Amino acid sequence: MGKFEYIKWRGIHKDKDDDFILFYEVDLDNDRYATRMIEIHKDGSVNPIEEEGFEFITEVPVPTIEEINAEPGWYAEQISEVEFEEIYVSSHYTDKRKKLYKKIIEDVALEISISSFWRKQIFESDKKPIRISSSDVQFLPEYIKEVITKNELSFVAKVVDECDERFDDGMIIFMFYSEEYPDVIAYSGNNPDVI
Asked: CA torsion sign, 152 to 116 to 106 to 44?
């Protein structure tokens, strides 16, 4: 047996039906071919894949994490062998990272919406997205800085004309979403006279 790398690979597309989550056990001693793979279906069900009688399950080498992340809409990260094995033998997958984004996004939206620094950035952005990541956490409370930095989370904030939530007339709507999980969204209504 060779040395292995374990990869989680997510694809996010405009057509949500094309989104995918794959996990690979990549044999680093054999040109990055995968020996095992896991497909996660839309309902969270787990489909472990092995090719009986074949050494590898991929016809081509699995790209590196850097190569995957260079493609728009693709996100990859290294995971541990233990995490891979836990998913491989399970019947249902819950994305812990997405769960973390869902847990923190309301706090991120609130704190950015009350920060003069961030309000000014968003108001003056002319509806262009403003990125909030581990390199851009100034003027945020320590607990949010810590979560964003420790977990390498990234959010986008921007002004939108409308949303499903109701805000008082005259309020400017800020939309916040995760770069990795664009369906994890929060909104805030903001008085344009207060910076």
From this structure: negative
